[in-house]
Amino acid sequence: MFILKLLVKNALRHRLRTLLTIMGITIALLSFGLLRTVVTAWYAGVNASSANRLVTRNSISLVFSLPVSYTERIKKVEGIKGISYASWFGGIYINEKNFFPNFAIEPSSYFDQYPEFVLPADQKKAFINDRKGCVAGRRLAERYGWKIGDNITLKGTIYPGNWEFVLRGIYEGADKSTDEGQFFFHWNYLNETLRKTVPRRADQAGVFIISVKNPQVAAETSLAVDALFKNSLAETLTETEKAFQLSFVSMTEAIVIAIQIVSFVVIFIIMAVVANTMAMTARERIGEYAIFKAMGFRSWHIAGIIFGESLCITMAGCILGSALTYPVAWKFGQVMERFFPIFHVDNNTLLLDLLFSLLIGIVAAVFPAWRAINIKIADGLRRIG
Amino acid sequence: MVPAFPCRRRNNFMSDPTPQPSIVSLRNVSKVYRRGMQSLVVLESISFDIVKGEFLALMGPSGSGKSTLLNLIAGIDTVDGGTISVDGIDIATLSESDLARWRSAHVGFIFQFYNLIPVLTAFENVELPLLLTSLSRKERKEHVETALLVVGLADRMEHYPSQLSGGQQQRVAIARAIVTDPTIIVADEPTGDLDRVSAQEILDLLDRLNADSGKTIIMVTHDPRAAEKAHVIRHLDKGELQDVHP
Ligand SMILES: Nc1ncnc2c1ncn2[C@@H]1O[C@H](COP(=O)(O)OP(=O)(O)OP(=O)(O)O)[C@@H](O)[C@H]1O
Ligand SMILES: [Mg+2]
Q: Which of the listed residues B29, B31, B64 should we mutate to test ligand 1's pocket, taking the one with most ligand atoms within 8 A of CB?
């Protein structure tokens, strides 16, 4: 009790200095937490991908599509549980600012491949039965205040014209990492129109989504699928969903690495700042430590006082920083929703905050403690007066 | 502690025919500071005894080695030659940790600048050395209150050093020095930073502790008035001991 009181009182001796140091730690941990969350959000698609899913696309590029007739042939490949297909629609809701991913999908099979998109059975049925029906994620529906039965119009960019839909279902994510910001409608609705207007673009799908029975044989299955269409007009490239998602992210990998480096640099800088504070503090108190030692206190008592004070300061910063990370990340996520559909503070971030705070507190106290321990009592006493 | 001197006997102190038990004994003590190639002999072959209950004043010009000698006796500095034994223990042979333990039990420190911990109250400052003992919280409280009562600051226990005058702070420091009931009290210019009235109060207090409780006190001072209170005055000059003035 006595010691704890002494630590806190010592820490508060230079109120402003301590306050500024705590603030520094708070801001450093806050930045660290946010940057880490950005990195996690960047990989959200990768992390949410299932090991049971494969994605088949045109081997030349994602820009080129594949004939839907491939469905039946792929289905026959050994080890495949289910298959569906989808096309990136790229429609705009009212204006460009309202970006969200929207796809034309095969309605009866698509959700079977995505068990993490939880859609109530009656809504699913209503969606399948309505040629103009559409399904939106919960967050997306909330953002625009959509209710079941609402009419929604998207302006096509890849497929010109105004496309009208009726909201038939709102899916929820099975867990926090599921993107609740997507929008789906009938592939057929798109295709019928294309048949009439641009027949050469009809009967095509952007990607096939394949569920496999056993993720261990995913590689073999992928090869088997691609072998089917070898030397055909539209060769395929099949890869795991994770690899497929990574191919998007890898384009921006350098940025992500830069962000990661910065997040650690921030920690390093604050470590130097706190170390400086502690060094100043200990230098001022060398005489006091000499008195403690003269009275018979041991080196580890002195070290305890210095480490304790340092940890008091960093832990105060840790508590504030960690506590603030949540509301700030939430606000940040709201503002950046367009770019980061999934923006959640990882629980590991809290753990890292705690670890780094401990580390900063210890590192900052090492040198002052070493000095205080090694100074001769007589020399320390000479500094007073 | 039984007073070694039940009454004031300053005048016949040295002429007492029965030899007094010596509590501190220095034999050929020397101290040398080395800085690079140069070596500075601060103390050279000092030998003398301090008997139990003695009030010794160490005087001498600045730089003569008074503080150094006091630090050696108090076990916060180490000799380069000779031996110092306190209460039968040759302190030069103690390991650093044993020496620390020894100091906490046997030495009370009083410094020129009081050196109280500013964030602790008078009570807590006095309690500090007791934290190294096995005393319970309640026992510590009793000891602290007694010590503060002795120095006349029972009503200032909750005050912080900054709320006390210099003389009062030094009295708290004295309470801190005596609270563990040490074998010797060392005081390095305890009145050096005080005005005359406060200085007199401190000297009276030390005198009283010596007379009433028989505390052995070793005091470094420049002040002849302070030295007057002592039984024995020893003069140091250039690291050598001069004649004894009883
Ligand atoms: N750590 C040290 N390194 C080198 N020289 C030292 C050291 N400590 C003390 N000295 C020297 O030893 C000599 C004696 O110092 P000391 O402090 O004992 O003197 P003093 O008699 O107490 O003086 P004052 O009356 O001014 O307090 C001085 O010349 C001082 O410069
Ligand atoms: Mg001195």
A: B64
Distance CA A74, CA A225 (A): 6
Ligand 2 centroid vs A295 CA: distance in angstroms?
19
Structure token pair of residue B225: 């008035």
Q: What is the pLDDT of residues B128-165, one digit of tens each?
A: 999 999 999 999 999 999 999 999 999 999 999 999 99
Tell me which residue in B76, B101, B105 faces A377 most closely, judged by beta carbons.
B76
Closest Cα in chain A to B177: A295
Residue A155, in any domain of the structure: yes
Question: What Cα–Cα distance (Å) separates residue B240 from each residue in A57, A129, A229, B46, B66?
Answer: 98, 112, 106, 7, 10
Domain ranges of chain B: 52-70+94-245
Query: Sign of torsion, CA B46 B48 B52 B56?
Result: negative
Range with the lowest mean pLDDT among A87-101, A212-226, B5-19? Answer: B5-19
Q: Domain B52-70+94-245 has what CATH class?
A: alpha beta
Residue-wise pLDDT for B184-207, tens only, equals 999 999 998 899 999 999 999 999
Q: What is the pTM of this model?
A: 0.79
Q: How far apart are CA A39 and CA A343, in angstroms?
A: 10
DSSP state of A157: S
Residue ranges making up the domain that contains A117: 60-234
Q: Where would I find the beta strands (DSSP E) of A4-62? A: 53-58
